[in-house]
Amino acid sequence: MSAVDESEVLGWFERALDVPDEDRLTWLKEKALPEWLHARVLRLLDAQARAEDDGFLDQPAVQQEPDDFPRIGEKVGPFRLVRRIDAGGMGVVYLARRDDGSFEQEVALKLIRPLHLVVHAGFRTQWIERFENERRLLARLQHPNVARILDGGATASGIPWLAMEYVDGVALIEHCERGSLDMRSRLRLFIRVCAGVQEAHRHLIVHRDLKPDNILVGADGEPKLLDFGIARLLDDEVDDTAGITRFTAMTPAYASPEHVRRQPLTTASDVYSLGVLLYQLLAGIRPYQLDGLSPGEVERTICGSEPAALRTALRDADDPRRAAHMALVTPDLERVVAKAMHKDPAHRYDTAQALADDIARWLSGKPVLAHPDSAGYRIGKFVRRHPFGVAATGAALAMMLAASGIALWQARQARQAATDLRSMNAFLLEVLQTSDPFDADRELTLSEALDSAAAGIDERFAQRPVLSAELRFGIGYSMLSRYRLEQADRQLGLALAESRAAFGDDDIRTLRVRDGIAYLRQEQNRGDEAEAGFRELAADLERLHLTDDPLYGNVLGNLGNLYLIREDYLQAGSWLQRCKAWYDAHPDAPANERANLLSNLAHLAHGREDLDDAERLYAQAQQAMEVLYPDGNPDLAILLNNRALLAEEREAPVAALELHRQSLAMRQKVFSSEHPMTLTALTHVARLSVIVGDVRQALVLAGQAAAMSDRVYADAPSDRHASTWATLAAARLANDDASGAATALQRADALLATVDHPAPSVAAYLQKVRAQLDGHRGGIDGPAPGQARE
Fold first, then answer.
1. So what's the pLDDT on residue 390?
2. Is 209 a catalytic residue?
3. How far is residue 292 from each of residues 279, 295, 296, measured CA to CA in Å?
4. Between the N and C ends of the chain, which has fewer C-beta atoms within 10 Å?
């Protein structure tokens, strides 16, 4: 079925929903629709009715895919479907291979069932937009224990799809049973699962559907979490006051009490699900048996009853392997599980990492936070860990004193954990509430909400660098991307200090903050500091044997790009080739970063005046980016800018102007009017307008660009500021205003003198305008300013 046909079906479906249930079939029959259309609308109405009945348990209301659902052998985006892996209520998963000739790659491609798009027409458009925004956010999540989202989009008929890292493995519980893993091995495996969950929580991403089938263990024994954040993509929760059906993606057996009650979810909900997983790993059964229960009975069971204690479940087991675990399950371990599964989120572990840390304490024989604090308990633990150190009465007394101190420390830790959980959840809710138009004079953007919430970090997390460091990094990087350099400098500087205090100099989280600061220095035109920062970071990653981390590939690319901006193509080529080698060795690296590398390699060939190779690489990069970003994005806008500069060199100014206009429109859609990205494109359009003879339009645009550059670069000198004023000089000269041109060119010279290491092409451009002015000619051509990624 074509997209046009699907649109007609959905249109009739919307109209039918407005008719009372009892009159709907008669009304539809009276419309005398074509047979195929009538049948299709009936199927959707039936699916909608069944979804309302079965939605709570997340059962697929439609098991047979519609006619327009892709089949084996067909292409979805750049991938070709190979075989079906799995299907569930949310969608169908296929093994797929990249089939666009760029490189080899296998992915798990998930097609979302159309039911989720047609349950109610009132939020379908909003849902698809949110899906795209969330997909881009989740694509940034990179951790060895999380299967990454690599790509995504929609089919011609509007069915959303996601391409995820393909994991050839078995579900967590099955892996443990097949390998007859003992209890300690299961716990060590579970700690790595917690690490993946913690990394996602660091990005403020909640899974919402943690269960064994969403955790695969590969042949190397490493667990990978699947579908992280997809439950949020598919969670069609909307305002009940609007009369719209509420769907909540979950698997009840692993869902927290607040989840089954449809209450707001935080990271504490995932901690509960981890507790259920831990219970099942150790006891061999789930804490609650929900088969055959109604939704109401499920809610009462999860929210109002306590599961059997671990040792009770193991004692009653028929399986001798499970019964063998009973001797190893201590009261401490039972309390760890109970704390993770506490009905009240405030009494659970504050983070997934805290749960993992307590398990690690148990494995090493140390006191756990989940145990009530008592001197006898601490002493007992100490004696068992140090049996030969307690022979004398004096030693026993010393231990009692030490135990009292430890008990007080542990009590403070427990209280701090509860405080941390409340603070973090309050912060998350504040970010959401700040953008609520009912709580403000207008609907704020997410960027504005984050800026507002950032002001409270100093007070709320003043004594908790573990929490504030990563929050500051995320917010600071957002500020950097929006060219709020002063605010970004403060947040990233504090994030680095707090990350070092909380995690140490060599922790990957600290290293990521250093990468962000080096990039900030580059944007502040402090190029020498940026270069030193990137080089030192690359060396540290090598020293720490972290070269397989995606951060290493990013740093290599960042150094290559830094030298591209300087037009030092020898150094740029060296670093970009190292970057390419890294991506060749890591075929599962994010597709967007791979496309950016292609774009930079094209820019390198362009700078070396290998124009044919540059054209070929630009075309490959543009094709890859248009698949990733069908509606455009900043990286694609940069590529269009650079292709336009290439067209200029090939003496095709009309084609170049069109490409610059496309780049400008894309940037204006993404950035505010006061962003350097927008300014660069506006300047290029003005400059090309002079070349093609549209001199009046050129003068208007160049004047706007020069005024904007004074505001944008007020605190950060840049050679782009100078080139913008040179373009104004060229536009004035083309309009026979030689005096005004001379004034603008003097300003450009003065601005360029304030910049360290200006790009040679910018200096050449100013000299070209000067020659034009000296000869009183009316046109301007020659080298284009700023061929770097901008």
1. 43
2. yes
3. 21, 10, 12
4. N
Higher confidence at residue 91 or residue 100? 100
Q: What does the pLDDT read at residue 175?
A: 93
For residues 128-135, average pLDDT: 61
SS3 of residue 586 by DSSP: coil
Residue type, 66: P
Q: Give me the residues paired with residue 97 across strands.
A: 80, 106
Amino acid at 765: Y
Instruction: Give me the count of residues in the chain.
Output: 790
- For 177-181, the CB contacts below 8 A with 24+ separation are 180/321
Which residue type, as a one-letter code, is found at position 232?
Answer: R
For the chain, the C-alpha Rg in angstroms (whole number) is 30
Q: Which of 130, 123, 168, 128 is nearest to 147 (CA)?
A: 168
The model's confidence at residue 88, banded by pLDDT at 50, 70 and 90, is: low
E-only strand ranges, 198-285: 215-218, 223-225
* 8 A C-beta contact, residue 331 and residue 376: no
State whether residue 76 is helix, strand or coil: strand
**Closest C-alpha to 259, from 312, 309, 295:** 295
Q: What is the 3-state secondary structure (H, E, C) of 584-632?
A: HHCCCCCHHHHHHHHHHHHHHHHHCCCHHHHHHHHHHHHHHHHHHCCCC
Mean pLDDT of the 715-729 span = 90
Beta-sheet pairing, 79-87 with 91-98: antiparallel
Cα gap 510→530, rounded to integer Å: 17
Residue 584 or residue 385, greater confidence: 584
| pLDDT reported for residue 554 | 92
Tokens 């956010």 label which residue? 137
Q: What CA–CA distance (Å, rounded) separates 329 from 283?
A: 10
- Decide: helix, strand or coil at residue 79: strand
Residue 541, H or E segment? helix 527-543
